[in-house]
Sequence to fold (697 residues):
Amino acid sequence: MPDWLEIGMPDHTGGEGRIFFSKDGQYAIKIYHKQKAGVTKRQLLEKIRVLGTHLTENEAKFLCWPLALVDNVDGNECVGCVTRRIPTPPYTTLVNIMLTPKQAAEQFRAGKSWADYLQTARGIARSIAVLSGKGCAHADLHFSNFLVDSASSDVVLIDLDGLVVPGFLPPQVAGMCGFMAPEVIMGESVPNERTDRHGLAVLVLYTLLFRNVLQPLHCYDPNSQRNDDEIGWGREALFSEHQHDQRNRPRMLGVPLFRGGALSYRMLTPALQKLTERAFVEGLHNPAIRPSAQEWINNLSWALDELWQCSHCRQYFPYPHWVDPVQRRACPFCGQRRLATPLPSVLLLYEPRSRGNYGFTQRYLVLGNGWTLFPDVLDSQRPPMTRKGEKAAGHVEWDDKRKTNYFVNEEDAPWRARLSPDASDITVSKGASVPLQPGTTIYFGESRRLLVVRE
Amino acid sequence: MNNHLAEEKLNRLLPALSPLAERIGAGTVPEEHVLKEILRSTGVEAEEWAVEELVFWSKILQSARTAATYGAKAAIAEELQSHGIPEASAILAVEAAIPPPLTVEPRSVNFGSLRPGEGAHATLKVSGPLLRATARNSQLKVSLADRGSGNSLVKVQLLAGSAGESLQDHVLLEGERGQVKVPVIAQWEKEPPMLQQCPQCLKESLFWNRYDKKFECLNLECKVEGPSLDKLANPRGRPRLH
Fold:
C-alpha cells in the first residue's frame, strides 16, 4: 500500500459514507460520514485490518478486505478504509444478475446457462465459508455486497468493514430485510455466524430459483408497511414451498420458467433439496441446525455432476432421476418431457469405510454420451471441483447397437467391475469399457470411491 | 492430542477471551479471583473446568506481551486455536494482550514565558502501561501520580529559573513497547533594569531587588513593592503617605 493516494470526486454516497476510487484505479476508499466516524469505528476497523493480514492468497481472492485505514483527506482528519478495487466490468453486483424469472428467461435465451448460476451460488458460499471458517460473521449479507464476474462466475464479497467476531467486534448493522434471520428481525438475536447461514441460504436459493423463497405473500398489517415486513419476515417467516402452509406459495410455482412460471426447489438435486429444507423448514427458527457454508459448497459442487442438457431448449438443469417414471421427468425451463435420447446413466457414489465396507455419499453422477469423469470425484480426500487442467479418469460412450452407455477407462491402472451382484469381477484395462447397466459396480482401486449404476 | 473443549462449553467461555486478553495487555497477571471475576462478568459460572481453561488461555496470552514479530504473534494465535478458539478470536486476543504503545496528552509542554524565579508544573495523561517517567534536566522533576493499569498521570514540575534563562528538553516516558519523548519548553523573562519609573508615584524610584526577586519603590512617600509591575502594593502596616 502506498502512503498516500490521489482521489477524485466520490463515486457514490451511501448511508455510512462516501466511496472514492484512487486515480491509479487500484483502490476503493470509503470515508465514513462524521456521525458514523468515532474513535471506536477506527479501532474496530484496525482490528478488521489486522485480521486481513492473516488471509491466504486464495482466501483474499474471494474477499475484498480493508487493507489500510485513512488518516486524513487533504489534511482533514477522518475515518475511512482502503480496499482493492474490483473492476466493473467484468464484475457486476449480484443484484444485477438476480433477475426476475422473466428476465432470467431472456438471459437464458441469449445464451446464459443455469449452470453459470450454480457456479455463482457456489462462489457466494465459498466466500462466506472463508469468513465462518475463521470465526467471523459478515452480518450484512445481501445481493449488493457480492460482485460477480459473469464470464467466470467468480464471486467477491465486499463491505467487510462491519465484521462480527464475538467478544472483539460487535455487530454494527442489523442487515437488510429479506436476508436477515427471523430472530434478528424479532430482536431476539444480533447478527452472528448462524444468522449469516440464513442470509447465505436465501442468497443461494435466490441465485438458483430467481426469487426470494421467503417472500411474504400475505399481508399482516395493512396499516403499516414496516410492521407488515417485520411480521412477514420475522415471526411469520415461512418457506414458500412449506408442505403444510401455502401462504407464501407463488401462483405459478412449478410451471416451466419459459412459460412464465416460478422455479421450485424440487428441481434441485436431492441433496440440495434436503439442505433447503434444513435451512427454511427445520432451521428457519432453529439457527443451530441451519446448513453451514461448507455444506452448501459441497452440495452445490456435487450438483454440477448431476446436470443434464435439455434437448429442446438446450438449458442445463439437474437431471430429475428421483422422479419416476422416466416419462414424467421434464425440463424445468421449457417443460419438455422427452429430455434427450439416449437418456443418461445415473450412478451412485460410495465412500470407502473401514474393513472394505462402503457407505453411500448421497451423491449421484449423471453421465451421458461423451461425458467425462474426473479423478477428484473418485478421491474422498480431495475437495470437490479441484480438477482444473487435470486428465479425465474415464468417459462415457453410447453404443447405439446395444442401446447402452459404456464407461471407458482412460487411466493407466485397471478398474474392476461386477455387472450384477452374483456375477464375477471383470477387469477394465486402459481403453477398455464397462456397460453402465443397472446393478453394475465399478471398483477404481484401494481407498477410492466406488460407483454403482442405478439406471 | 486434542485440547479442545466441547463446542458447547467453548461457546460459553469464548466471551471471556476478550476481557482476559485486555487485562493481560494492561499489565495484569490474572490471579484466580480475577479469572473468576471475568467469568462472572461474561455470565459464566466460575466452575472448575472454566477456570482451568482460562488459566491455559492466560498462560498462552501472557507470552504475547513480548511478541514482537508477525511470526511470533501468529504462533501464539495458533496455540490458542489448538484449544479450539476460532482463528479470528485468537488473532484479536493476541493483539489485545500485547501492551499498547504509549500515548500521551498533551504531546508537548510549553510553559511559555515565566518570570525570573518562577516555577511551574503540568500534568501528562498517559495511556498504556507506563514503566518509568524520567527527565535528565535537573530543572525538571517528574513524578508518577495515580498510576492505573491502563492510564497514568505524570506530574512534571519545573523548578524556578533565572532571568533570561530558557529550557528546551523532554520528559522520557518508557512503556513495554517503546518510549515517548514529551518536549518541554520554558523561558524566563530577562532581569528588569535596576531602577525605573514607579507606575504608582511616577518617580524614577522603582528598584529591582534581585535577591528577593521583587520591585521596591525607594520613594518614602510611595514604598510600593511587588514581584511584578502589575502587582505592586503597599506593604502591610505602612500607610501610604499623600
Chain A touches chain B at residues 47, 50-51, 53-54, 133-136, 163, 165-169 (CB under 8 Å). The CA atoms of residues 100 and 151 of chain A lie 20 Å apart. The first helix of chain A runs from residue 39 to 52.
